[in-house]
Amino acid sequence: MDTREQDGVVAVEFSLVLMLFLLVAFGVLELARVLYLYNTLQMVTQRAASLAAVTDFHDAAAMSVVRQKAVLRTAPGTLAFGDPVSDAHVRIDYLSLSDGGTLAMTPIPAAALPYCPVNNRINCMKDPYGASCIRLVRAQICDPAVTDSCVNVRYQGLFSLVSLPIMLPKATAIVGAETLGAMPGDAPCP
C-alpha cells in the first residue's frame, strides 16, 4: 500500500474517533451540570426560605438581598454554572395554617400580609390558625415570566449543539416563620 493512502485512512479514523470522544466528553459534562443543578436548586430554596424567615417581608430591598444570597451572589445575576436560574427565579411565599380538621398550608396574598412583623406576632397570638398569621415561609424556583403559578424552568444546556428537553425540578423548601425581621422592643404598626 502507498503511504499516502495510509495517511488518508489514519486521518479519517482519527476524525471519527475524535468526534465520538468529543460527543461522549460533552455528554458527560452536560450530565454533570444537570446533576449539579438538581442538587444546587434545593440548596438555593433552603437558603432563601431560611433567610426570609428572619427578614422583614415588607422591605423590598432586604427581600432582594435574600434572593441574591440564595443564589450565592452579592448582586443581581445568575447562579454560577446555573444559567438561566437567577435571583429572579426565587419565589418566596408566606403561608398560614388553617385548621379545618386537618392542617392545610395556605398562601397569604400580598394584600393580606400583616403591616409589619410585630403585627404578625400579635395576629398569631390572637388566632394561630388565622388567615393573616404567617406560620411558614416557602421558597421555590419558578419561571419569573409566569406570575400566577409556579412553573418549572427549562434547562439551558452549556453546548448549543444538542438541546435537551429537560425541565429543572420544582425545588421547594418550607421553614417555620421565625422573627420575620422583628427586633426586640419594636412597636406594632398602625
Topology, number of strands:
4
Structural class designation: alpha+beta
Total number of distinct structural domains: 1
For the termini, the CA-CA separation is: 96 Å
Helix content: 25-40%
Largest sheet: 4 strands, antiparallel
Structural account:
Helices cover 37% and strands 14% of the residues. With 190 residues, it is of the alpha+beta class. The protein has one domain. It has a four-stranded antiparallel β-sheet with strand order 2-1-3-4. β1 (90-99) and β2 form a beta hairpin. α1 runs antiparallel to α2 (60-70). The longest helix has 50 residues, at 3-52.
Itemize the secondary structure elements and their pairings:
Blueprint: H1 3-52, H2 60-70, E1 90-99, E2 103-107, H3 117-126, E3 136-141, E4 172-176
Antiparallel strand pairs: 1-2, 1-3, 3-4
Helix pairs in contact: 1-2
Which labels suit this protein?
190 residues, alpha+beta, four-stranded antiparallel β-sheet, 4 strands, 37% helix
Nutshell version of this structure?
The protein is of the alpha+beta class and 190 residues long. It contains three helices and four strands, in the order H-H-E-E-H-E-E.
